[in-house]
Amino acid sequence: MEKHTHITVMKRTLALSYTCLEAINHLKTALEAEISEGAILLFGDLIEAFIQIEDSLQSFDNQLPLIELQEPSGAVRTALEQSAAAFESNDNERTLTSIHNSLQPAFESWKSELERILSPFLAA
């Protein structure tokens, strides 16, 4: 992949990470309003987006210190699994608590690490 393409993919990856964080906030709002069906669809989109980000990062395996994302990525995957289990229980309060206490902090930490890793390449 040429440098211009790398930069474009990195920028889109960061943009998608911001969109994911917005989706988490919308999930919380939907669950607070007891709009479960819409929240479930949005949660599915969030999972797909996170997988897409992880897949796109693999193309930079040799250029980026991806080892530094392993722990935060694992925390996000665990939080997604916990939130999925909460959704399956059909308990909005449990789901909201899982998203608020587990998913959102894990995702914010992961996103910060992603920004830290990508910023030197995007600043160049």
Task: Give a short summary of the structure.
By secondary structure, this protein is mostly helical.
Would you mind describing this structure in some detail?
It is a single chain. The protein is mainly alpha-helical and 124 residues long. The protein has a single domain (3-123), classed as Four Helix Bundle (Hemerythrin (Met), subunit A) (Up-down Bundle). The protein contains four helices and no strands. It has helices at 3-32, 36-58, 67-88, 92-123. Helix 3 (67-88) packs antiparallel against helix 4. The radius of gyration is 15 Å and the shape is elongated. It starts with a helix and ends with a helix. The mean pLDDT is 90.
- What share of residues are in beta strands? under 5%
**CATH C-level class:** Mainly Alpha
Biggest pleated-sheet summary: none
**Remind me, CATH topology?**
Four Helix Bundle (Hemerythrin (Met), subunit A)
Poorly predicted runs? none
If you average the pLDDT, what whole number results? 90
Helix content: over 70%
Gyration radius, rounded? 15 Å
Number of strands: 0
